Amino acid sequence: MSKSSETVLPYRLLDAGEEQKLELVGPYKVIRQAAQAFWPKMGEPHPWRDAIDGIHIRTNKGGGYWDYKNKPPAEWTISWQNFLFRAKLTDFGHIGLFPEQGHTNLDWITEQANDPEMEVINLFGYTGGSSLAAARGGARVTHLDAAKGVVTWARENFELNNLADHPTRWIVDDATKFLEREVRRGRRYHGFILDPPTYGRGAKNQIWRIEKDLIPLLELIKQLADPLHFILLSCHTPGYTEWCLRNILHQVFDLPLTQIEGGEMTVPMESSECVLPSGTYARWSKQ
Ligand SMILES: C[S@@+](CC[C@H](N)C(=O)[O-])C[C@H]1O[C@@H](n2cnc3c(N)ncnc32)[C@H](O)[C@@H]1O
């Protein structure tokens, strides 16, 4: 059965369990890995066998491929958290947004980034979910990612949301190298958003390892923050619990622990009252 990709439908997490998640990405029903879903599938009222469009299969090398039952178009538009997003199914098993950020952090970012004079930088910005939230608040935005393709994708998402004219800088670079240059140039920022991967590659193939590179990156942020208005640090790395992230912000920025919020990033499931845990965050705001 063909499905219209013209009607804009939302992202929905239908169910999760047995290390998988069942999602509707607009009109398309897909199954992906969910590393922390250690409980049985609920299933009802969302059967896992009916009308599946694609199942992502992860391969040993870290990437993967889609096993399609009904191949979706190359891209289509979905809605999520009051934003429009271009959705695509990538070989890596990504869909173009990280839903856990939406349910946990996007409204908070919009509330913090509420001053048109404020400079906000989103490092590891991917397709721009957090950058859109900052732009909606009114702040000037610098969106950075090492991958040119996702920076283009983020620009398209800004256009979809009528934010193409918002004061935004688009940077394809390695996060550390760019911040080192910004320190030398004497630039200043007030809001910082970073969701670093466990392992990644910079624009010139620089290797990023969270355990080695995160603290030096935060030290650069400390030099650029004048004054620090807010910082949001999140990640999906096993072992980096909310208290680990809180302690990092406390130690590097000398912020009172009692003023640092933290928790697990989660996505609500439609099949039950359960939520799918998907990473951790810690955040601090002057407000
Ligand atoms: C977990 S995703 C961030 C998701 C984003 N927070 C969101 O909610 O849409 C990590 C991103 O970091 C980027 N990346 C990896 N290594 C990098 C580096 N050294 N410098 C800058 N970006 C990097 C990847 O290209 C990827 O887009």
Automatic annotation (TrEMBL):
GO terms for molecular function: methyltransferase activity. The keyword RNA-binding does not apply. One of its GO terms (biological process) is methylation. Residues 71-204 form the S-adenosylmethionine-dependent methyltransferase domain. It comes from the Bacteria. The keyword S-adenosyl-L-methionine applies. SUPFAM superfamilies: S-adenosyl-L-methionine-dependent methyltransferases. Keywords: Methyltransferase, S-adenosyl-L-methionine, Transferase. Pfam families: Methyltrans_SAM (PF10672). InterPro entries: Glyco_hydro_b, SAM-dep_methyl-trfase, SAM-dependent_MTases_sf. This is Class I SAM-dependent methyltransferase. It comes from Acanthopleuribacter pedis.
